[in-house]
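pinned: reference chain
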Amino acid sequence: MARVEKGTARDNRARFFTALLLAPMSLFLLAVIGLPLFLLVWESVGDRDVSAGLPRTVELLASAHAAPSPDLYAALVTDLTEASDTAVGRVARRLNIEKPGLRTPLVAARAVALERPADAQAALVAADGRWAKPEIWQAIRASSGPWTDRYLLAAFDLERNASGEIVSRPADLAIYRSIVVRSFVIAGSVAALCLILGLPLALYLASLPPKSAERWLLVLMLPLWTSILVRAMAWILLLQSNGLINGVLQRIGLISAPLDLAFNRLAVVVAMTHVLLPFMVLPIYNALRAIPRTQLMAAGSLGATPWQSVRRVYLPQARAGIAAGILFVLASAAGYYITPALVGGPADRMIGTFIELAVLRTNNPGLAAGLGLVSLVFFLVLVGVLIAVMKPMRALEGARG
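pinned: its C-alpha cells
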C-alpha cells in the first residue's frame, strides 16, 4: 500500500514539473493566438459605443413607442454634455455606420448641448432639422447594443431590415461575399501552383547530399529576404508591356504584340507563388528526408519502376509534409493584400485590402473584425476538408500495406 502511494506521489510530481515546463509555451500561445482571437470575436459582435456614450437616451428609447418626447431631447443634451470628446466621437462613428450622414447632426447636437439650452428640443431641431425626424432616433435605438450581428451579416452581404428580418444588401453594396470567395480562389490557385512546382523540386533536393541540398535551399529562400515592395515592383517591370518578358518573346518571334501580363490575375498568382514557394518546398523536403532511401532500393529490387516507387512508397509517407505545405501556403496567401494591390487590377484585390480599408479609411473596426472572422472560419472549413480528404487516403494506404 505504501509503495502504491509513493508511486502516485512520484507521478503527481512528474505531472507538476511537466506542466511547469509547458507553462511558458502555453502562456505564449495564449498571448499570440488566444487573446487576438478573443478580441477579434469581441470586436465583431460588440456594440457598446452608443450605450456607453448616451446611457440616458438609450434607456428612454428602450421604453419609448411614440414620437420623441421633450424628456428624450433633454436626456440627449445631458448625455452629450457629460460625455467626453472621445465618447462622442465613438458614438458619431457608430451612428454614421448605422446610417451614413448622422455624424453631422450629432456634432451639431454636441455644440448645442455644451451651451446648456433651456429648451433642448427646440435648440436641437434648430441646429439640425433631422432631430425632429424618427430616423435618427431609430438609428440610435438600433445601435444601442450591447451586442450586434450587423458586422457578421455585412461580411456575408446581409443586413436586417426595419422589421428585423435578415435580407440581402442592395446590389451596389453586396461585395464582400464575392471578395472572400475571390481571395480563397486566388490562394487556392497559388497553393496548387506551389505544389506543382514544389513537389518535384523537393524530390530533387531530397535526392541530393545534405550539403548540396542546403545550398539550394538557401537560394530558394532568397525571395523571403527581399522587401515586399521590391519584389512587387520587380514583377511589374518584368511583366509590363515593355518589360523584359514581352521584349524577349517579341525578339525571338513568338509574339507580334505585347501580351497583357501585368495588373491582372496572372500577375498576382505568379508574384505570390514566387514568394510562397519555399513554404511548400521546406515541409515536403523535411518529410522526404526522414524516409529511408533503402525503401526505394527495396521497391526497385521488387520490380517497381521509379515512378511507382515515388508514387507508392515516397509520397504516401510524405503526406503530412504535403498537407503542411498546402496549409502554410493557403493561410499565407489568403491574407496577402500588398502584392495583389500592386501587381493586380481592381478585380484582383483580396480580403486583406478591404480589411485595411475598413480599419484605416472608413473607421469601421467592427466590419474589419467581421471580415477577418469570416475569413478565419472559411479557412478552418478548408482545413477540415483537407483533413477529411487525407483520412480516406491514409486508410487506403493502410489497407494496401
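why pinned: The longest strand covers residues 158-160. The chain has two domains: 52-142, 176-400.
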